[in-house]
Design brief:
Blueprint lengths: L1 E10 L9 E2 L3 E5 L3 E5 L6 H8 L7 E6 L2 E2 L4 H5 L2 E4 L11 H11 L8 H8 L15 H13 L5 E5 L7 H16 L3 E6 L2 H4 L4 E6 L2 E6 L1 H6 L5 E5 L3 H10 L3 E7 L2 E6 L14 H11 L6 E4 L4 H9 L2
Parallel strand pairs: 4-9, 4-10, 7-8, 8-9
Antiparallel strand pairs: 1-2, 1-3, 1-5, 5-6, 10-11, 12-14, 12-15, 13-14
Helix pairs in contact: 3-5, 4-5
Length: 314
C-alpha cells in the first residue's frame, strides 16, 4: 500500500517568479518507507512538506496521505501525521515536560499512552524536563521537537532538515531513532542537506527548482552515475579550479573536501593521446604544463553528492 501519492503538484508564491514546487509526474512512497529528499536551499523541499502536511494548498495537482486528499481531507490528515519543521517551533517559555503534555493534549492523548514510542529519545531529556525549552541546546531542542511530533503515534512523520545546526552526536542519534521507528511500520519522509544522511534512506529523491531529478535507492543512484570522475589537487587550488573548468573535455568541476572533483564529457578520450596511459595522467601533464606543482589526479568512485552534481547538468 502506498502511504503517500504525489501527482503533478505545483505551487507558486509570485507570478513573476518560478514555481517553488513544479512536480510533473506521479511519485509514490510505500507504507513503512524511510524516504529522503535532498537538495540545496531553495529547491522546494519545505514548500513540498508544507503542502503534504496540509499547511498550504497547492495551485494545481493532487496528493494523498494514507489515502486521504491533502485539500479535501486536511482535518483527518492532521490527526494522522507528525510534522517537525526546520525551524524550532515549540513554546520557548514552557518547560520540556509542559511542551510534551501540551502537544499530547492537542491530539486527545496522554504521554503514558505512547511513551514507548519516545522512550529512547526522551530518556536524554528527562534530566532537563523542568528547563524552559528556549534554554535547551540545539541537539536537545531537536529531541524535544521529535518527541512532540511522535507523542500521538502518527502514521506518517515529516521531518524538514531535522539535523541542521546540531552536533554530530545528535545527528547520529536522530538517525538511529528513525531506523527504530521505521521498523514499527511508520512512514518517514525527511529532507536533509547532508549526503551521508541520505545514504541511510530506503530511497532518496534529488530535488532542484521544485522538481525531482531522480528517485531511487542510494545504491542504485550511485551505480547509475554513468560518467568518468576524477579527483584533482595541486598547490594552487583556487587557480586549479579555474584551469580545470577551462578545459574543453571537462563537463563539470567543483570543490569536494580538499580536492576538486572533475566530471569528464562522455566523448572525452584523453588516454588515446600519444604518451598518456590514462585520463588521470593526461590531465596531470596538462596541469603541469600550465605551471601547477604538487599535482595529484586519481580516479574516484562517485558519491551521492557527485550524482547530484551530475544530474543537475542534465
Amino acid at each position: 500500500m502506498d502511504s503517500i501519492v504525489i501527482d503533478s503538484l505545483r505551487k507558486s508564491f509570485h507570478e513573476d517568479l518560478p514555481p517553488a514546487v513544479d512536480m510533473r509526474s506521479v511519485i509514490t512512497i510505500p507504507k513503512g518507507e524511510l524516504f529522503g529528499i535532498i537538495g540545496p536551499d531553495g529547491a522546494g523541499k519545505t514548500t513540498l512538506f508544507r503542502m503534504l502536511a496540509t499547511l498550504i494548498r497547492p495551485d494545481s495537482g493532487t496528493a494523498s496521505v494514507e489515502g486521504l486528499d491533502i485539500v479535501r481531507d486536511y482535518r483527518k490528515i492532521r490527526t494522522m501525521i507528525g510534522y517537525m519543521p526546520g525551524k524550532f517551533s515549540l513554546y520557548s517559555d514552557l518547560s520540556v515536560r509542559e511542551n510534551l503534555e501540551f502537544f499530547a493534549s492537542v491530539f486527545g492523548k496522554d504521554i503514558e499512552a505512547n511513551y514507548s514510542l519516545i522512550e529512547n529519545i526522551y530518556c536524554r531529556l528527562r534530566p532537563f524536563e523542568k528547563r524552559k525549552a528556549g534554554r535547551l541546546s540545539g541537539g536537545m531542542k531537536q529531541k524535544l521537537a521529535l518527541c512532540c511530533s511522535l507523542i500521538h503515534s502518527p502514521s506518517v512523520l515529516f521531518l524538514d532538515e531535522p539535523t541542521t545546526g546540531v552536533d554530530p552526536s545528535s545527528r547520529r542519534e536522530l538517525w538511529e531513532n528513525l531506523g527504530e521507528l521505521r521498523t514499527s511500520g511508520m512512514t518517514i519522509v525527511v529532507s536533509t542537506a547532508y549526503m551521508d544522511e541520505a545514504g541511510r534512506c530506503d530511497r532518496v529523491a534529488m530535488m532542484k527548482s521544485g522538481r525531482f531529478l531522480a528517485v531511487d535507492s542510494p545504491a542504485d543512484i550511485i551505480s547509475g552515475f554513468g560518467a568518468r570522475l576524477l579527483a584533482v589537487r595541486s598547490d594552487e587550488m583556487f587557480r586549479l579550479l579555474h584551469d580545470l573548468r577551462s578545459l574543453p573535455f571537462v563537463r563539470k568541476c567543483y570543490t569536494f573536501g580538499d580536492m576538486h572533483h572533475v566530471i569528464l564529457n562522455d566523448d572525452a578520450d584523453l588516454s588515446a593521446q600519444a604518451g598518456y596511459g590514462s585520463d588521470a595522467a593526461a590531465i596531470a601533464s596538462i596541469l603541469e604544463n600550465r605551471g601547477h606543482s604538487g599535482v595529484v589526479v586519481k580516479d574516484v568512485e562517485a558519491s551521492l553528492e557527485d550524482c547530484y552534481m551530475n544530474l543537475e547538468e542534465k
